[in-house]
Structures are given as C-alpha cells and as structure tokens.
Design goal:
The protein has 538 residues and is mainly β. It has helices at 11-18, 34-39, 209-213, 417-425, 457-462, 523-536; strands at 63-65, 71-73, 75-77, 82-85, 100-102, 107-110, 114-116, 134-137, 142-145, 152-154, 159-163, 170-174, 196-199, 219-220, 227-228, 238-246, 264-267, 274-281, 288-291, 296-303, 310-313, 319-326, 328-331, 337-340, 343-348, 364-371, 385-390, 396-404, 413-415, 429-431, 434-437, 447-449, 454-456, 468-469.
Length: 538
C-alpha cells in the first residue's frame, strides 16, 4: 500500500479556507521575542519572508510567558495556515510549565519535542507539581514533527486534553505529510517523529511496595528517559478522543536498539484518563504500549504498525472494548513494499516484580478483530501473529475474532515458557471468541507444558467449547473487509453480554469482533472505515 499524505495541503486552498478564521489564544504580538520568531521559519519550504511582518494579520499561534518574562509564540504563515514553533518555544530541554492551547483551525509544526511539566525523580530531591500544566488541542488541529526524537511528552502532574470529533479529528503526524513542509518530496514514513508519551501516578510492578508507600516510585520510561509511577490507579492524565497518531515511533539519538518510542506510550496511566477513538497508523514500534496503571481503552484502531499493535506490560489492570487491528504492507520512499505487523497483542504479565499491590497484568478485553498476514515484519523479521502470551499474563479476551487466511511461515497464537503455566491453569483465556486461522500454533509448539501438566494450544483456545476454531478458509468478514459477517453460517457461538462482566465500563454487545456488518452508520463504523480505507489505499 502506498504511504498516504492525507493532510497535504496547497497554500492557496488552505489560505482561502482559513480566511477570516481567528484564534482564542491570548496574543500580544509586540512583546514576542524576536529570536523565537526568526528561528521558527527556518524549515518552511514556502517563501515566508513577509510572515509575521503584516500587522493586519492576527497571529493565532500558541503563546506563553516563560520564566524570564519573555513571551514566546509560534510564527504564523498565513499562506499555508502553519504555526511554526522553534526549539526556543519548546524542546526536550525547553519544558513548558504553563498551559497552552493549539487552535483547531491550523497546522502546528514543532521543530523539537513538546514537553509539558518537569520530569522528576523524587529520589533526587525534586517535587512533582501535581497540578501541572495542561496541553489543550482543539478539534481539527493538525500537530506535526520532523524528527524521530521529537515527541509529545506529558510528565507526571501535567495533562493533555486533545478532544476532537468524528468530523474534526485531531491529527498528530509527520511534517512530511504536509506538502509545504516535505522538503525532500518523499512523503511521510514510519519513524518520522517520536509519538506521544504520557507518564502517570498509577501502579507499575517496576516499583516496590515500599517505594510506592514512600512516594519514591520513579520507573524510568523507554525511548526517552522520564519517570512514572505511584500508587494511584485512578490518576487522571487527561483525554485523547477522536485522535489520529500517524507515522510515529522511533529510536532516539543515542538510544540502544529496542529502547524505542511507541506511537502511544501509557506509563502507569490511571483510569481517570480517557482514551477513546484513537487511530494509529504506520508506526515504527508498538501502536500502544501500556506499562501498568489502569487506564481503559475504547474504540481503538491500529493498522500497519511495524511491531506489536497493542503491547500490555508491567501489571496493567485496565479494560478495553472495540479494538480493530490490521497488519499489512506499505510502499516506502524507495518504492519498496515493506511488510508491517508482528503481534496483534503482545501480552506480558510482568516487567518487574509482582506483589499483591502490583499484580500481573489482568485486563479484560472485549470485541476485538485482529487481521493478520502471512508475512514477517520489516522491523525485526518476526512473523505476523494475532496474540503473543508471555510473562505470566492473566488477561481474558471476550468476543474476539482472529483472522489468518494463509500460514506458510506464520501462525495465530504464540506463547513463551513464562506463559505456559498460566495457560495450563486457565489464568489467561479467551471466551466466546473465534479463530479463523490457517494455523493456530507454530509447528512443534502445539503442546503447552506446565510445571506438572500439559494442554495444547487448540484446547487452550477452545476453553471447554466456549470458542470456535474455524480454520483459515472460514467466511467471517463482510465485503467491506473489516466488519464481522453476521449472515454467514460459520460463526455459531453467542457473544458474551459484556455488561454481565463489568457494567461500569463495558457496553452490551451481541456480536463477535470489533463491529458487526449490521452497523453502517455509527461513529465507530465511520472511524474504522476511514482508518481501514486509509491503510488499504493503493
């Protein structure tokens, strides 16, 4: 599939569309530090010599006053509708400690990272500002970066409030998705920017009970070192709703291979945080990785990401409902077809040491579709799998549909020796789910050997007849390629009404998979349809 630049804009058309638009940001143009505005146009491919000099053009870009009492504001180019923010405005070392708002009518281009709140290792004597700054991103905004190290980083105590709508989603993406910023002309690619990192005060098994009690839990994050964790699994780090995260993830300069940035990293994020209607596309590492905490996920689409679509780790205790995952391929800038996708789920119970206070990951996950391929990921040569079980995971999947139509070098369910006992004991399981898989387990790994007894992957999946293993030729998907076929004869089991499991979070459903073919108009249908079409676009 061809890498898409859905957000490329022409200078003329966007200028016309934005004519007369204003912002509600506090603007004081005469006090803006000139070193900031001069720097902030250095990477723009359009002629910006007059940008910011016309006093009749109101500057709608975000602004704040820093600790030296200097006002910082992005520089606005009215011909492209782009606000450009230099590293004098924000970077990994220029941390924002005050609220800012990104106006929904514009493209916001950051030359460095956008870091909200100070990162604090409390064992070194610092104090976390629990009522820290908030990054507000308005519906319709497009936020772009141009480096694999550049990211949105929400430190403990800070918040992000990015609330879009179905008609006006918020997009975080590569600067190369914007025509006037794509200086080479190759379009966007995975690893173009670093993604979104959120650090919370939730419980992670990477800290001890004693550290949590003493407020010295400071787990170091992957990718870029920040600190997370605490003892509050109800912590609120803000909202991501109707948000797209495209072409993200990367290996920051100086980082070792494997210490990567994900498209969305949730570090000990609590259940007070809302993650709903998120579309992740063409990521370099994992789509979403959860390091403990108890944040819930709902209405999530992950397509064509290189590593795992959703990675569970470090004692995550949240829930998830309505998850659509698809592995596929992309055409890179050189014209080569690259295969994307390793695990639909990588499900790890432990990263550190489990205790009663910080048990192994035990999420309940419902209404999932995972569409795999028979290819290996360009990232590491690992096969496209539906679910990988590891490290004493105790998750339960309900109403889940796994699809693999061919299996010459891949299979659906993978497990490590650290997951064998929980599979034998039934601590990890699937309920009222369907596997339309050409091959369930890797050849030679069909038998799961625990400490004193065994099972098979087929028997584990069957779960006493709760689930159906239909084989790779089963007719389970509708003509649109993503919805579950409800008029076919292959799927015969009855879905679990998830309100009987947890009525506080789950919605009642009567179908297997992420959505049924009878739904052709809901926000969820339109969200999946748009993401699927984007990923499948030739």
């Amino acid at each position: 599939m061809k890498l898409n630049a859905l957000f490329q804009v022409s200078a003329i058309s966007l200028a016309l569309a934005l004519a007369g638009c204003g912002g509600d940001i506090n603007i004081t143009p005469t006090t803006i530090d000139n070193s900031t505005t001069t720097t902030e146009n250095s990477n723009n491919t359009t002629n910006n010599s007059s940008s910011g000099s016309d006093s009749s053009d109101e500057n709608p870009c975000a602004s704040y006053t820093d600790s030296s009492d200097t006002e910082r504001q992005g520089e606005y180019d009215s011909s492209t509708g782009i606000c450009t923010y230099s590293t004098a405005f924000a970077s990994a070392s220029k941390v924002l400690t005050t609220d800012i708002t990104l106006d929904g009518d514009y493209i916001h281009y950051f030359n460095g990272s956008l870091v909200m709140g100070e990162s604090c290792n409390t064992s070194e004597g610092c104090t976390i500002e629990t009522d820290g700054p908030t990054l507000t991103v308005e519906a319709g905004a497009t936020v772009v970066f141009d480096s694999a190290s550049s990211r949105v980083q929400i430190n403990r105590g800070a918040k992000i409030e990015a609330v879009g709508t179905l008609a006006s989603p918020i997009t975080f993406t590569s600067a190369n998705a914007i025509e006037s910023l794509d200086t080479v002309g190759d379009g966007p690619s995975p690893q173009d920017w670093g993604g979104i990192m959120i650090d919370g005060f939730g419980i992670t098994d990477q800290c001890t009970d004693e550290q949590r009690a003493a407020s010295t839990c400071n787990a170091a994050s992957e990718g870029a070192v920040t600190y997370y964790g605490g003892n509050d699994n109800t912590d609120d780090s803000g909202t991501l709703k109707f948000v797209k995260i495209h072409y993200a993830g990367g290996l920051p300069a100086g980082a070792e291979e494997g210490d990567d940035l994900n498209s969305l990293s949730l570090f000990a994020v609590g259940s007070g945080t809302e993650i709903d209607y998120v579309d992740i596309y063409a990521g370099y590492d994992d789509g979403i990785e959860l390091f403990g905490g108890a944040v819930n996920l709902k209405h999530i689409v992950v397509t064509d990401t290189q590593d795992d679509s959703i990675d569970i780790d470090a004692g995550w205790q949240g829930n998830a409902q309505y998850i659509f995952i698809k592995h596929g391929s992309l055409e890179n800038a050189s014209g080569d077809i690259i295969d994307m996708g390793n695990g639909g789920f990588e499900a790890d119970g432990r990263k550190g040491t489990s205790t009663t206070e910080a048990p192994a990951s035990a999420p309940k996950i419902a209404n999932v579709t995972v569409i795999t391929t028979d290819n290996v990921s360009v990232r590491d040569g690992d096969p496209s799998l539906a679910i990988k079980l590891d490290d004493f995971i105790e998750a339960t999947w309900y109403n889940t549909l796994l699809v693999k139509t061919a299996a010459t070098q891949t299979w659906c369910i993978n497990y490590s020796s650290d997951a064998a006992q929980v599979m034998v004991d039934g601590d990890v399981s699937m309920v009222t789910s369907v596997a339309a898989c050409a091959l369930m387990a890797k050849s030679g790994s069909e038998t799961v050997t625990g400490d004193s007894s065994t099972t098979t992957v087929d028997d584990w999946f069957s779960n006493g007849g709760s689930n159906e293993d239909l084989g790779g030729s089963a007719d389970v998907l509708a003509a649109n390629g993503f919805a579950t076929l409800t008029t076919g004869s292959d799927i015969t089991i009855t879905a679990t009404d998830m309100t009987t499991v947890d009525s506080d979070f789950f919605e009642a459903t009567s179908f297997i998979g992420a959505l049924p073919d009878t739904d052709t108009s809901s926000d969820w249908y339109n969200w999946v349809n748009t993401a699927f079409t984007n990923a499948d676009d030739e």
